[in-house]
Design goal:
It is a single chain. By secondary structure, this protein is α/β, with parallel strands linked by helices. It has one domain: NAD(P)-binding Rossmann-like Domain (Rossmann fold, 3-Layer(aba) Sandwich), CATH 3.40.50.720. 42% of the residues lie in helices and 16% in strands. Strands 3-2-1-4-5-6-11 form a 7-stranded parallel β-sheet, with helices on both faces. Helix 1 packs across helix 7, helix 4 runs parallel beside helix 5 and helix 6 packs parallel to helix 8. The chain is globular. The termini are far apart. The structure holds nicotinamide-adenine-dinucleotide (NAD) and 2'deoxy-thymidine-5'-diphospho-alpha-D-glucose. The site of nicotinamide-adenine-dinucleotide has 30 residues, from helix 1, helix 4 and strand 5.
């Protein structure tokens, strides 16, 4: 492989993956492709832009002509697709863009792979396609065989995309793989998501809005470990296969919020319980046996070390998130939290 197209490269995980590739595969050419929606941020890619191995193209994955153009300009050997509408709460407010980007955009990318001699395609999916697990059955985990059973328009759109990817493998022979990862955290995480929202609110002495009883469980993975898993699947994964990615780091939301406050030296009086998310998934927990045994992947960063690094990053990079929070984000925050 010599050239990789990374779609959604200006978002949280896509940008971290670009940096991971530039550092760990210095002979690769990396082409970042991103529509720069509210979640895409070119400031995030500022350092990558200095590398001769990186090129950024602004484009929409639902725009077949724009995708065909980048394929005609670059000798693309593989596509790794991070581009998506990714926030569950936004999908509850307005599902349509989720269906457009997350399903039709994937179809456009798969068609481009077909049209260019069956280019290798990796779909970055999510554990949310499995629905949720009950809190009183800690012995249960998501395996790759767990039935698809989605809860939100976001997860339904990601599940539809997964099925489409597998259909292109079986019907057209496009060489595909899929990863389904648990919740990521780390640098460049958009401050609408739990951990960066809580860090930013705590630093600005604002209330920390915890949905429902705060006992919902997520299985947290430091973003670099997710990047490592995707590269392992891209290079060594079996075609047509799904790989779950997660590191047995289950925490309740309250535990996560209290960890943020402890690391910042703040008291817990700012925790505020607000109306729950409709259809709120109770617990996610990944069984990573397949990726560990087949590809030798394991997470390197513990939750404690990862949270320490993440909080330090947000302290050291205040302009990055303050810039985001000073724009249209304020209208978003008022709409989502104003009456909650
Ligand atoms: P993000 O919202 O931070 O970034 C998404 C990026 O996609 C943004 O840069 C945005 O501009 C871009 N984008 C959106 N629509 C586009 C379009 N039509 N054309 C081109 N670019 C477009 O999301 P993220 O958290 O980095 O998630 C990346 C992927 O990983 C998503 O597919 C998501 O479903 C999946 N995932 C996320 C997590 C997580 O915890 N964040 C966990 C598992 C899987
Ligand atoms: O599991 C993988 C998924 O993780 C990804 O597919 C999604 O793209 C990603 O956004 C994430 O989804 P979640 O819904 O789990 O993440 P979020 O950060 O929105 O919420 C995490 C938990 O925290 C969830 O139980 C809801 C709760 N929460 C969230 C916010 C934003 C709060 O209690 N308060 C909040 O303000």
């Amino acid at each position: 492989m010599t050239t990789i197209l990374v779609t959604g490269a200006a978002g949280f995980i896509g940008a971290n993956f670009v940096y991971y590739l530039l550092k760990n595969r210095p002979n690769l050419r990396v082409v970042g492709f991103d529509a720069l929606t509210y979640a895409g941020n070119l400031e995030t890619l500022a350092d990558a832009m200095q590398s001769p191995n990186f090129r950024f193209v602004r484009g929409d994955i639902t725009d077949a002509a724009a995708v065909a153009q980048v394929f005609s300009e670059e000798a693309i050997d593989a596509v790794v697709n991070f581009a998506a509408e990714s926030h569950v709460d936004r999908s509850i407010e307005d599902p349509q863009i989720f269906l457009k980007t997350n399903i039709l955009g994937v179809q456009v990318l798969l068609d481009a792979c077909r049209a260019n001699g069956n280019v290798r395609y990796h779909q970055v999916s999510t554990d949310e396609v499995y629905g949720d697990l009950p809190l009183d059955r800690p012995d249960l985990f998501f395996t790759e065989e767990t039935p698809i059973h989605t809860s939100s328009p976001y997860s339904a759109s990601k599940a539809a995309a997964d099925l489409l990817v597998l259909a292109y493998f079986r019907t057209f022979g496009v060489p595909v793989t899929i990863s389904r990862c648990s919740n990521n955290y780390g640098p460049y995480h958009f401050p609408e998501k739990l951990i960066p929202l809580m860090i930013a609110n705590a630093l600005e002495d604002k209330p920390l809005p915890v949905y429902g009883d705060g006992l919902n469980v997520r299985d947290w993975l430091y973003v670099e470990d997710h990047c490592k898993a995707i590269l392992a699947i891209l290079e060594k994964g079996r075609l047509g296969e799904v790989y779950n990615v997660g590191g047995h780091n289950e925490r309740t939301n309250l535990e996560v919020v209290k960890t943020v406050l402890r690391l910042l030296g703040k008291g817990e009086e700012s925790i505020t319980y607000v109306r729950d998310r409709p259809g709120h998934d109770r617990r996610y927990a990944i069984d990573p046996t397949k990726i560990r045994s087949e590809l030798g992947w394991f997470p390197e960063t513990t939750f404690e070390a990862g949270m320490e690094k993440t909080v330090q990053w947000y302290l050291a990079n205040r302009p990055w998130w303050e810039h985001i929070r000073s724009g249209e984000y304020q209208a978003y925050y008022e709409k989502m939290y104003g009456n909650r």
